[in-house]
Design a protein that fits this description.
The complex is a heterodimer.
Chain A lengths: L1 H5 L1 H10 L4 H38 L15 H11 L10 H18 L17 H22 L3 H32 L4 H8 L2 E2 L2 E2 L6 H17 L11 H4 L9 H26 L15 H22 L5 H29 L3 H25 L12
Antiparallel strand pairs in A: 1-2
Chain B lengths: L2 H19 L3 H21 L3 H27 L14 H22 L14 H9 L3 H22 L3 H6 L1
Helix pairs in contact in B: 1-2, 2-3
The chains are: A mainly alpha, B mainly alpha.
Chain lengths: 391, 169
């Protein structure tokens, strides 16, 4: 019975596909998988938006949406209808073709990333050797769509926002990739399915998730920082800093195209949380051995939504960084730490089983983290704020 | 030569032609990206996963952005006012592109007899490439890495403001 619940969607697909003649079954299965992805993630997007608006509202001492439906839970539907019926305005000077293509490219690329994420046992659309590489190739392509949006609008704010976004995404892509490389080193495979399988083991009822190792924990922290920056989320949301740039690269978008950008941003959050879950938090595996009877897909989506909640919480808590702080942080702190973490992972790998490697690896990471942090803080002088251009 | 191959080939050639013929430089760069993407799809169609995804990651993700930034920083993306979407010097561009293509094609055709005739398509999984790079070819890899690091540092030094140098003078 529980096995059936775990494999519910796989069985459902097989049952539906079984009605077709032999040659059609495989392509029909793929189409069903795509329909699943296109249906599930936008639903999660609507949930995440509602959670964000309610949660941020509570953090800022207000109620958040509470008019549409009980407790405002139908707000996403109202928003969708509103954006669909709004007028779509394209600036007269805009490059109409590129202006139109930018949101389309963004959303298409964002959806492509989901194809390789294993959402449950036997539940992955494309199981290939190089799935992690595929994911990062798709992630790198979003930068171009953001540039297209900013450039084609013929608006200074848009262009500046796009430049900021692209510079930030390129800078933080390096630590994002390098922190994931430790996982690849340990698993010996780029396949996300194999990475989850390697973590789906238990000792004394506790899971072998990579976050529960010194190098895995450090890599996860850096992955989380880089992922927040990569999705342009607060405190790294300079590209859309409304006090400086109106709305950044999508200033000149209205109606449904604006909604597509919004969708693309949240899909990016969902997919990068999904990848983080897969790499560090054991994907669809249960957090305790005695909870392994709960269907695997419930675990995956719970972990993803938990990551989203943390992202919302961070957004409600931290103020926005300055551009130079952002870049210095990426290149002078996070990148050296990821490189060090690669070395620590190698040390871990070759020290063999035992308590010693836990002590050695943790010690290296903590000592360097504290020393680098102190050195970085030592150079700063804290005092009354000085203004260079305004007095 | 399947239908998919012709579709991808048409996309790649169209992208390449647009990159040569269009007037607006940013449009050219975006068209070039389409050509890069088409090449990546061709690699994927030949079951070369690593080459295909690396092509997308490096060319679409990084090189295209670099080209676009270079255009914006040098010419400040001026839009030519006179009408038409094609560049006035499209003949020159086409001739240069055709010449480069002819040379590459000639080189490839010359090298064909030198290769052993394999009946089965060679299959190299990502894992095999990884083993080869970390095992047999680790020294060339390290040398390339060192060279690239040196080039990176050199580029940063060239681009840096020379504050210390100004003091000495």
């Amino acid at each position: 019975m529980l096995d059936k619940a775990d494999q519910l969607f796989v069985l459902l697909k097989d049952w539906l596909v079984g009605y077709l003649p032999g040659g059609w079954q495989q392509p029909a299965g793929v189409v069903l998988g795509v329909i699943g992805i296109v249906a599930v993630y936008p639903t999660l997007f609507a949930t995440a938006v509602l959670m964000e608006r309610k949660g941020l509202g509570r953090m800022q001492n207000r109620l958040g949406p509470n008019r549409v439906g009980p407790f405002g839970i139908l707000q996403p539907i109202a928003d969708a209808i509103k954006s669909l019926t709004k007028e779509d305005i394209v600036p007269l000077n805009a490059d109409a073709m590129v202006h139109f293509l930018a949101p389309v490219v963004l959303v298409v690329v964002a959806f492509m990333g989901f194809a390789v994420l294993p959402v449950g046992r036997n539940m992955v659309l494309v199981d290939m050797d190089a799935s992690l590489l595929f994911y990062f190739a798709m992630g790198a392509s979003t930068e171009l769509s953001i540039f297209m949006a900013g450039w084609s609008s013929r608006n200074k704010y848009s262009l500046l926002g796009a430049m900021r976004a692209v510079a930030q995404m390129i800078s933080y892509e390096v630590p994002l990739l390098l922190s994931s490389v430790t996982i690849v080193m340990m698993t010996g495979s780029l396949s996300l399915v194999k990475i989850v399988d390697a973590q789906n083991q238990y000792t004394w009822g506790l899971p072998h998730w990579y976050i529960f190792t010194p190098w895995g924990c450090a890599a996860f922290v850096m992955y989380a920082i880089a992922a927040t920056a990569e999705t342009n989320r607060s405190p790294f949301d300079l590209p859309e800093g409304e006090s400086e740039l109106v709305a950044g690269y999508f200033t000149e978008y209205s109606g449904f195209k604006f909604a597509l950008f919004f969708l693309g941003e949240y899909l990016g959050m969902l997919s990068i949380s999904g990848l983080g879950t897969t790499l560090f938090l054991g994907g669809w595996s249960a957090p305790f051995a005695f909870l392994a009877w709960v269907p695997s897909w419930i675990w995956f989506f719970s972990k993803v939504m938990l990551s989203i909640v943390v992202l919302i919480w961070v957004r409600g808590t931290l103020p926005r960084l300055r551009q130079d702080q952002l870049m210095n942080f990426a290149w002078k702190f996070v990148l050296p730490m990821t490189l060090l973490n690669l070395m620590v992972a190698a040390v871990w790998r070759f020290m063999g089983e035992g308590l010693l490697r836990w002590i050695v690896c943790s010690a290296i990471l903590v000592v360097v983290f504290v020393a680098a942090g102190r050195a970085g803080m030592g150079r700063k002088h804290f005092g009354p704020r000085s203004y260079r251009y305004a007095d | 030569m399947s239908f998919v191959f012709w579709l991808i080939a048409a996309l790649t050639v169209a992208g390449g032609l647009a990159a040569v013929l269009l007037k607006n430089l940013v449009h050219c760069a975006l068209a070039l990206t389409i050509a890069f993407l088409g090449l990546a799809l061709l690699f994927l169609q030949l079951d070369a996963q690593f080459a295909g995804f690396a092509q997308i990651l490096v060319y679409v993700g990084a090189v295209a952005i670099l080209v676009v930034f270079a255009i914006l920083l040098t010419r400040s993306s001026e839009i030519p006012k006179d009408g038409g979407i094609f560049s006035r010097t499209w003949v020159t561009g086409l001739v240069i592109a055709a010449a480069v293509f002819a040379m590459l094609g000639w080189a490839v055709l010359q090298s064909v007899p030198g290769l052993p005739h394999e009946s089965a398509a060679p299959a190299a999984s990502v894992q095999q490439i990884g083993w080869a790079l970390m095992g047999r070819y680790v020294l060339p890899l390290e040398i390339v890495a060192l060279l690239l690091t040196a080039a990176l540092i050199g580029a940063v030094i060239v681009a840096m403001h020379e504050k210390e140098g100004a003091k000495e003078r």
